Each structure stands twice: as C-alpha cells, then as structure tokens.
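Saturday, quiet lab. Running sequence design on the structure tokens for the scaffold JK sent over.
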C-alpha cells in the first residue's frame, strides 16, 4: 500500500470495523497480483483463506474486467487460475488448513501472497471454550508458527484482516470492556476508529505493518453541483506510523484519491 509496496516475508494487518472496505482492498490487491503484467499486474499466485465468508468471486471478476477493459471470459479465467480459495469455520480447522497449504506454496513458485480474511474470526468462540488465556490463544500461536515459517522459508507476503471489536461507546462501557478482555489490551485512536489490541503476543510480534481502516462521508467539491456527499475510506499505518492513503470504492474497484 505504501509506494514501495511490501517486501518478501512481510506480514501486514488490516484492522477496522465492518464497512471500512478491508475486504474490498483485499480484492484490489488480489486482482493486482493475478493480472498479467501487460495490464499492470504481477502475474503472481494468491492463496485466499476466507474465514469470514466475505469473499465474493463475482465482485472479483467485475474488478478484473474493469482492469482488463474486457469481458472476455478466457482472459478472466486465465487470471483466476492463479487464485486458490479455501474456507474454514473454526480455529482448529484454520490451523489444519494453513498447514495443508504448504504443498501449494512449495510446489507453485508463482504464489507470492497469502491472505487471511480474517485472522480474528474465531476469537470469541475460542474465548468461550477455555477459561485460561493460554488455552484461548493456543490455536492463534499454532497459526503464527506456521505462517512465520512460510514467510521465512518461501518469502511470501502475508496480509490478514482483524475485526474491530468495539464501536463508539461511552467511557464507562469502554473501561468495562477493556477490563473484561485481558490485562494486555492496548488501544490507539486513528481517525474515528479506536484500535484495540487483543490478539496474542505471538501475532503482535509477527506483524510488521498495521493499517487501521476507517470510513467518512465528505463533501464532493469536484462536481459542478458541489456539496454532494461522497463516501471515502482511509488506511492509516500505526505500525509504523506516518503513512495514510485515501480511496473510494467504485463499480470497477478501488480508486485512490490524489493519484
């Protein structure tokens, strides 16, 4: 997302509440990878682990057609051959799924991006099945062990989304939630979104870049009428801080503002 782009072995986290275009950004990056170089793509393989069941293949096809400037079915299929999609519905299944992906990553040199949407999908389920923090985070740590090895052994890039657990609340309710999670909860305010850190230390240490996604409604001064409202999104780094990009979501996909 930064100008230089991620490097081999980087782990990136997208954090934000529902409706802040995290999955849309994942589709944008997926399309960028699987598109041919002649169309500004990378001709690289992508493994997409869908734990939230938000992945929309028809939406991806629409984005691809917009970038290819054609509805030619064969050209779209050629791009989609570089995409591997897997789904799972528990943290145990996620561990097994990630472990089983090694044969795809090892046998296909073109695979360069692994996406997990989202890494926090089973957080509350795991919390309800074990009273100890160690037990609740067991499968998180197992996932991190596997992912860390893939990053170092195969040089792929990892991008994972993490859901925001809180919206706008009173100070009293926020204090109650903070104490009910665990002693290690940390928060950072970015735009209109508060980032709460609730994942295991193993996950926190794995992440190199963290983007907080937010949504805003602004006045569109680019039209002749002026004053028309438009929905914009932003992704701001807090690990490390200092970089922010703004974008809109159109029928053809993401359009970065100021570019």
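Result came back. Writing it out in full:
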């Amino acid at each position: 997302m930064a100008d230089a782009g991620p490097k081999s072995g980087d782990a990136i986290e997208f954090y934000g509440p529902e409706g802040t275009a995290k999955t849309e950004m994942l589709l944008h990056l997926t399309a960028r990878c699987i598109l041919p170089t002649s169309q500004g793509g990378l001709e690289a393989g992508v493994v997409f682990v869908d734990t939230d069941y938000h992945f929309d293949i028809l939406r991806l096809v629409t984005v691809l057609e917009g970038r290819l400037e054609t509805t030619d079915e064969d050209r779209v299929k050629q791009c989609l051959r570089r995409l591997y999609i897997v789904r799972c519905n528990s943290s145990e299944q996620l561990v097994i799924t990630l472990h089983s992906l090694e044969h795809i990553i090892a046998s296909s040199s073109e695979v360069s991006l692994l996406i997990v949407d989202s890494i926090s999908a089973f957080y509350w389920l795991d919390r309800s099945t074990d009273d100890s923090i160690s037990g609740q985070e067991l499968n998180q740590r197992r996932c991190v062990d596997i992912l860390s090895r893939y990053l170092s052994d195969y040089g792929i890039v990892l991008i994972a989304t993490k859901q925001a657990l809180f919206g706008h609340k009173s100070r009293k309710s926020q204090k109650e939630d903070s104490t009910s999670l665990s002693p290690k909860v940390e928060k950072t305010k970015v735009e209109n979104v508060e980032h709460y850190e609730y994942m295991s230390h193993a996950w926190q240490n794995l992440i190199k870049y963290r983007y907080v996604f937010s949504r805003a409604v602004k006045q569109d001064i680019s039209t002749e009428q002026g004053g028309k409202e438009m929905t914009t999104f932003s992704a701001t780094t807090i690990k490390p801080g200092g970089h922010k990009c703004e974008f809109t979501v159109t029928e053809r996909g993401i359009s970065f503002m100021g570019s």
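Notes for JK: The radius of gyration is 19 Å. The mean pLDDT is 87. Ask whether to fix the surface positions before the next round.
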